[in-house]
Amino acid sequence: MKRSELAQYIDHTLLKPEATAADVEWLVEEAVDLGVYSVCVSPSRLPVYTPGNLRVATVCGFPSGAHHSNIKAAEASLAVSTGADEVDMVINLAFAMEHEFEAVESEIRAVRDAIPNRVLKVILETAALSDFQIVQCCIAAERAGADFVKTSTGFHPAGGATVRAVEIMHDTVGGFLGIKASGGIRDTETALAMIEAGATRLGCSASAAVLDGL
């Protein structure tokens, strides 16, 4: 894979709570230099000016996912109104762990309905879930009309993306939904392994290091 091809998988991410306006400006400059697909920033940092085809992603219900679905929907709607092209929402992990998959689907649909014309990615926090729970959450996301399922926030103590989780997601909804691997992808080898497993997008804060291997 060429460096430029790998770059187009990447959402260049800055979600540290202490990130300043100057940090976001630098993120955009670096993103342009690297040729990545998008930048992903906290919703309070919107709007973000991006030149050319560089897209803007943000998050909702982040990072815990324990927000009420109405709050997630309102946050997503506000983000879109202030310039977000894509929204990465965190599911309620308790619903998934209690096998309340209809509740997972319902809250995803609430956000989907709030942003019908934008890309919606659903963060499952796969490191905290069983294989069965990952499968069922992927099915719920597909039924609710999401565009992607995503492994992780990068903030959960259970960990980030794994090849195994991406393979499960791909086996469940690959070809129907995009699959975003995120959390702990810090080098080229890991990034390529995620793509080989079925990832169609990568969330990276260490994008330069990921691309340096090519």
From TrEMBL:
Enzyme Commission code: 4.1.2.4
Domain of life: Bacteria
Annotated function: Catalyzes a reversible aldol reaction between acetaldehyde and D-glyceraldehyde 3-phosphate to generate 2-deoxy-D-ribose 5-phosphate.
Organism: Corynebacterium humireducens NBRC 106098 = DSM 45392
Active site: D88, K150, K180
Name assigned to this protein: Deoxyribose-phosphate aldolase
GO molecular function: deoxyribose-phosphate aldolase activity
GO CC terms of this entry: cytoplasm
Catalyzed chemical reaction(s): 2-deoxy-D-ribose 5-phosphate = D-glyceraldehyde 3-phosphate + acetaldehyde
